[in-house]
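Lab notebook: predicted structure, single chain.

Context: the supervisor wants predicted structures on file for every construct in the current expression panel, including those that have not yet been purified. This is the next one on the list. No modifications to the sequence; it matches the entry in the shared construct table.
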Amino acid sequence: MRTLTLATLGVALATALPALAEDKPITWKDDVAGWYIGVDTSIGNGCFMTAAYEAGTYLRVQFNPSSDNFQFIIGDEAWNSIEAGKLYSIGIAFGSRSPWTGDAEGGRLGELPTLTVDVGFEKDKAAAFIDEFRRMTSVAVTYESKEIARLTLSGTNAAMEEVINCQSAVNEAGASAPADGEDPFSSGNTTDSDPFN
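Prediction complete. Output recorded below exactly as produced.
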């Protein structure tokens, strides 16, 4: 088994889908192989990909510059007993690989109950996690040895490539990266937040 760590500070309560956002994210691409790719300004302009599944389950993975983490977020409309801030020991298995295990923090994205796992960046852990996410065709999530979600992963390679491209573009902005709520892809030559105005 492999373990994941949870950062003690700065776990972002970001959107599962744009429609669930408190503040609408900035769209990078509306649809890449069934995934929405966006920038969440509430976590320091972190790029993410998200998709909705039947029966009210949502999956999101993201770079979180605010906490210097890569995060896996799963939510389900039926998980109403999840407590915000409580830690839940879960397993995440991609395909037939051995599961990643660690603590997930309970929370809410709008009204959606969620579990957020911080993968971290130490010793290539995030790279290995991302590689499995990109290449495997399914993911199973367990809690207390019971499977709570099994999702098909389709188009994850292409979508993750766009998330990486998105984050590279945001990172290239460096110190000139926009403040929360501003478009990180704007050239900065306009007084309006719309670079096409």
